[in-house]
Task: inverse folding
């Protein structure tokens, strides 16, 4: 019984971080209809930057590293949108071109990280030690704190989208780009902002999970794929959906890993994706688009 | 060709020489004959090896072009078909003792089945969802091959000692590069011909292009979307699996590396540089990239990074690839 509870808790804490990656992916897709295949590599980028600052390089405390990395991630997002995505907008085969370009970008980041940091895995020591124990069930303080931070991030994003003027502009662009343009919303700026936010979210998730999962140059594909399955199950553009879906899927994953084995985790996600697409292609809360 | 200039048929026919099917075929086979002669003149077995890889890649990229460029389905599971072809053919010849040529034929059958399996969920999806689903299949396969160790898939080390091709009692070893050159050229030439000149210029090609360019309209005039998309997957997978089988018997080793970053990036660069849906763009892309990749060998560590940069730059600055350059000049 305690074992099952522990698996559940582990799944739930993991789920919160997956949710951060997923809402980032969904945010960009919602605003600009781009499925960013480099999303997972940017997750690794966040992890590696933090590893460098905290462990490999100057050895500064993690909170300071966070403060330094956030603007770098945001800037990376803006640069990618400006330099790579924007020139393609309005071109003939826009959709396939953005897929090709973001995939290419993913491989550039991946191999860049590999060149700079080597192919091995890295880890960051957790910022809090010890664990909490309630009637035989133990959970590390670290997992508890990344759970809280993730929830805060997703909550803040939801608040930003629902109740600030700028967030409303993002939603307007998501619903009708041309209409938004006509009422005077700077659409290009919204694209840049969503890209910046998205990279920040996935990068932060990469940092938070580094002590749990380790970071490696090629390690971004797993969180990316998981984020996508979450987004599909939750319903596109629905933060609430992504939230619920992240917990369901992460708990399922935790059970698969415990009872069948870690190497079945990825095939299990794929299977979950197929089942979701077969049973409820529009997701739990979303409206099926296209 | 004024009246038919904008019809899909004109589009397919005008991309190559612009003088119709007969003329195109003649030019095509003349080039193939030229390559066959060239093989005999080349004395360097390393150059043979590179060109053998080019011919095998041509089959993969032509099949990918068929589904991605012509049918407009964002399929990224191409190397999955290749892997199944390679492993299937290898295992059938190692464990069941099938003659390699028969094993390659069986690999085509395996390809058809895998194509169907990947197609079924994909057909419920649209656009980038297909891209992600198929790519997810690609990503999930290496761990499965790991598990497949139990049924003789060799795990991480892969399969070694795959039997050589047996042509009418004559063993073609991997060292016999010249014979392999002609074998690979023959396979490549026939497959590419079947793809671009038979399948794509026939009813199927028309349906593909109609679906790609005018989805709703195509359905309105009675193009059975489900059937033709399914066919696109199956035909593409069959040819790619043949290429996989050929590759397995040529190198006599298959490892999960065929699903690694390098192969996938190579395939993407070939298609991007060559240009999608514009024969002979994709095939030219194969020649450019395989040869370019060999020239870049000295950059070793940076090679994959450069390939990635090449994808991004060509898509931004040369969105229709090399084929687009030709079209502009006309």
Result:
């Amino acid at each position: 019984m305690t074992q099952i509870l522990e698996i559940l808790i582990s799944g739930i804490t993991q789920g919160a971080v997956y949710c951060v990656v997923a809402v980032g992916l969904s945010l960009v897709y919602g605003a600009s209809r781009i499925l960013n295949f480099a999303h997972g590599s940017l997750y690794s980028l966040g992890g590696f930057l933090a590893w460098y600052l905290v462990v490999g390089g100057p050895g500064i405390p993690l909170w300071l590293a966070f403060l330094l990395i956030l603007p770098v991630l945001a800037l990376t997002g803006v640069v990618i949108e400006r330099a790579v995505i924007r020139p393609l907008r309005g071109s003939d085969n826009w959709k396939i071109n953005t897929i090709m370009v973001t995939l290419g970008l993913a491989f550039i980041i991946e191999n860049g990280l590999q060149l700079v940091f080597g192919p091995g895995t890295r880890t960051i020591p957790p910022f809090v030690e010890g664990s909490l124990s309630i009637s035989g069930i133990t959970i590390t303080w670290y997992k508890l704190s990344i759970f809280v931070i993730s929830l805060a991030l997703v909550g803040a994003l939801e608040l930003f989208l629902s109740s600030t003027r700028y967030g409303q502009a993002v939603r307007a662009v998501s619903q009708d780009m041309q209409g938004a343009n006509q009422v005077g919303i700077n659409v290009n700026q919204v694209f840049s902002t969503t890209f910046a936010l998205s990279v920040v979210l996935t990068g932060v998730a990469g940092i938070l999970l580094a002590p749990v999962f380790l970071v490696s140059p090629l390690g971004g594909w797993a969180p990316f794929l998981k984020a996508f399955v979450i987004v599909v199950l939750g319903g596109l553009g629905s933060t609430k959906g992504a939230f619920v879906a992240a917990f369901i899927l992460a708990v399922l994953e935790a059970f698969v890993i415990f009872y069948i084995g870690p190497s079945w985790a990825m095939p299990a996600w794929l299977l979950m994706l197929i089942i979701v697409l077969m049973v409820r292609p529009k997701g739990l809360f979303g409206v099926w688009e296209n | 060709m004024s009246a038919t200039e904008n019809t899909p048929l004109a589009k397919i026919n005008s991309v190559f020489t612009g003088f119709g099917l007969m003329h195109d075929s003649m030019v095509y086979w003349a080039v193939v004959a030229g390559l066959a002669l060239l093989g005999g003149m080349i004395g360097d077995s390393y150059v043979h090896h590179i060109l053998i890889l080019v011919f095998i890649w041509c089959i993969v990229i032509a099949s990918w072009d068929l589904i991605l460029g012509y049918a407009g389905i964002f399929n990224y599971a191409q190397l999955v078909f290749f892997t199944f072809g390679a492993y299937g053919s290898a295992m059938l010849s190692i464990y069941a003792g099938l003659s390699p040529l028969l094993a390659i034929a069986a690999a085509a059958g395996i390809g058809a089945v895998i194509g169907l399996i990947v197609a079924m969920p994909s057909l419920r999806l649209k656009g980038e969802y297909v891209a992600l689903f198929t790519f997810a299949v690609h990503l999930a396969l290496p761990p499965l091959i790991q598990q497949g160790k139990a049924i003789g898939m060799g795990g991480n080390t892969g399969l070694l000692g795959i039997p050589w091709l047996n042509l009418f009692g004559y063993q073609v070893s991997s060292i016999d590069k010249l014979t392999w050159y002609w074998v690979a050229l023959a396979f490549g030439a026939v497959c590419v011909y079947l793809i671009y000149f038979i399948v794509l210029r026939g009813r199927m090609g028309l349906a593909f292009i109609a679906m790609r360019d005018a989805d709703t309209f195509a359905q309105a005039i009675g193009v059975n979307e489900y059937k033709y998309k399914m066919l696109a997957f199956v035909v593409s997978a069959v040819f790619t699996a043949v290429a996989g089988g050929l590759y397995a018997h040529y190198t006599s080793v298959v490892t999960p590396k065929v699903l690694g970053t390098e192969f996938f990036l190579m395939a993407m660069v070939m298609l991007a540089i060559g240009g999608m849906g514009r024969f002979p763009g994709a095939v030219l892309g194969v020649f450019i990239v395989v040869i370019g990749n060999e020239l870049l060998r000295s950059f070793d560590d940076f090679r994959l990074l450069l390939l990635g940069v090449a994808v991004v730059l060509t898509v931004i600055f040369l969105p229709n690839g090399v084929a687009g350059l030709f079209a502009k000049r006309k």
Summary: Chain A has a mean pLDDT of 87. Residues 20-217 of chain A form one domain. The first helix of chain A runs from residue 2 to 32.
